[in-house]
Amino acid sequence: MYRHNENMRIPSKEQVNSKGGDMRDRYVLTGAKLATMEPGAPYGLIEDGAMAVQGDRIAWCGPADALPDSYSEWAAEDLGGRLVTPGLIDCHTHIVFGGDRAGEFEMRLNGASYEEVARAGGGIVSTVTATRAADLDALVAGALPRLDTLIAEGVTSIEVKSGYGLDRETELTMLRAARRLGELRDVTVKTTFLGAHAVPADYANRADAYLDEVCLPTLRAAHAEGLVDAVDGFCEGIAFSAEQIARVFDLAAELGLPVKLHAEQLSHQGGTKLAAERGALSVDHVEYATEDDARAMAAAGSVAVLLPGAFYTIRETQLPPMEHFRAHGVPMALATDCNPGSSPLSSLLLTLNMGCTLFRLTPEEALAGVTCNAARALGLSDRGRIASGLRADLAIWDVTRPAELAYRIGFNPLHARVSGGKLETRT
Ligand code: DI6
Ligand code: FE
After folding, report:
1. HEC string for 211-280
2. DSSP secondary structure letters along 330-388
């Protein structure tokens, strides 16, 4: 769907040689409306902006009339007034999994009860069974179309969780598949170990034994193989208690890994307090979080990752406490939560729209939620904004104002994507 931009005025080899540097590696974008997401103006907007990219970095950005003369000899592309945002970041996904749950979706809409769906092998158990049955190549092949859909909307960084293996080998295979995705596409993949996602059937009512015998040893093994960038858990009545999650976080601390948590999604269990105490990068879902939780998150600097796709799919009615997050200065991110059960969503643009319509975020908060605040939720300090020295991850849009990205439904105005300085134009 993408090609390298052949219209760029790439200098000849002679020019390159005469300058003593590789100019194919550097270029200027002019005629750009820059939504830098830097503090100050709304969206950090620079109406008539320009920027210079060298290698994988932003060398300069600012108003076009301030572009230093020294860039005048670089290859240049006039964007004709298009909007440029930071490359989008999906900071919470489960895109690696086997099978799908469309059959279960259909059963439910034909009137089957939750128990009937479960008895027919539905629910998270069916995804675990299908994921265990898939090999690495099958998991990668299944995830690629979902990843490509995200990339086609300007996504340049994505988080991918394990958690549908719930046995040592399959958890490792899921994480290897996530790493492979990052090798196959121009996208940064951050991996998260989510062994404490559900208690597998063979450990029913023995969650602590599952943690001791499977989850914790697998985390050690995955870390030893370099497969883990962060550690997550599902703190919920139907999954793990805060005390059990604390044991997983103890091991994460021992291994020097940052933590995050699925907390207060369906009920209030105290996971947010625990995650904040452990300095979590983010606390995710948080529909049932309280003002005290928001205070704790603010003190810890944890990001609230809001997941409107899951809220929509399970027809939740409890809204996350946005007013407390705003009042206490908790940064809010938005993500797809792409998974086969509660959020079969692989559009970050639709997520922006849902964040505004369902959660009443402003379009500016929504865009911050998939750029600067999403970067923070992943512990990535080199992206999510447009500023010199940061990684050149950008999305270039055929729109005139940033709010259009959140306003339209089912419309993809991406013109081009820049990942690590590499410009790909949508065809
Ligand atoms: N919260 C969710 O919404 C998903 N996982 C989680 O921790 C549900 C996953 C599934 O149903 O497959
Ligand atoms: Fe999730």
Report:
1. HHHHHHHHHHHHHHCCCCCEEEEEECCCCECHHHHHHHHHHHHHHCCCEEEEECCCCCCCHHHHHHHCCC
2. --EEE----BTTTB----HHHHHHHHHHHH---HHHHHHHTTHHHHHHTT-TT-SS--T
Q: For 30-49, what is each residue's pLDDT tens digit?
A: 999 999 999 999 999 999 99
From 149, 214, 219, select the one nearest 191 (Cα to Cα). Answer: 219
Assess whether the C-beta atom of 344 lies below 6 angstroms from ligand 1. Answer: no
Ligand approaching nearest to the C-alpha of 233: 1
What helix, strand, coil percent values describe the chain, rounded to 5? 40, 25, 35
Which of 11 and 426 is assigned the larger pLDDT?
Answer: 426
Residues 6+ apart with CB under 8 A from 60: 50, 51, 52, 67, 68, 71, 388
For 186-233, write each residue's pLDDT tens digit.
Answer: 999 999 999 999 999 999 999 999 999 999 999 999 999 999 999 999
The residue whose CA has the least distance to atom 2 of ligand 1 is 342
- 262: nearest Cα among 181, 335, 190, 210: 335
Cα–Cα distances (Å) from 352 to 79, 154, 333, 410, in that order, read: 24, 13, 10, 11
Among 108, 166, 234, name the best residue to mutate to test ligand 1's pocket (greatest count of ligand atoms within 8 A of Cβ): 234
CB 155 within 8 A of CB 384: no
Atom of ligand 1 nearest to the CA of 340: 12
Name the closest-CA residue to atom 4, ligand 1: 342
